[in-house]
Amino acid sequence: MDQDQYKVPETGAPQSMVPVTTTVINIRSDTVVPDHIVWSLFNTVFMNWCCLGIVAFAYSVKARDRKMVGDLTGAQSFASTARCLNISALVVGIILGIISIVLLSIAYGAAYGALSQAMQERRRYH
Model's pTM, two decimal places? Predict the structure, then answer.
């Protein structure tokens, strides 16, 4: 290949004598710590049984703060706690949701049975 076609033409000296400053930001992508903040927010809004969602959200915010400061060990600790609380809130929410549906079904069935029996007795008297 011809090396001349890739050469950059020289533009000369810079116009300003002000030194050029650069800023380097090192972002470590190999140590990603999930903070589970979206999951915690979901549990806080929709499945907040025994306030587990609020506590998980608080730990998620702490994990995010630790991650921003650069304390990855603290961030992992808070994220692990938030994850456990989110799992607990989800399991308790699902179990209590199922129990609520079953109890409401039983209550509506009993009310329907009592109402239909009362209507049959009323028809007998008329």
Answer: 0.65
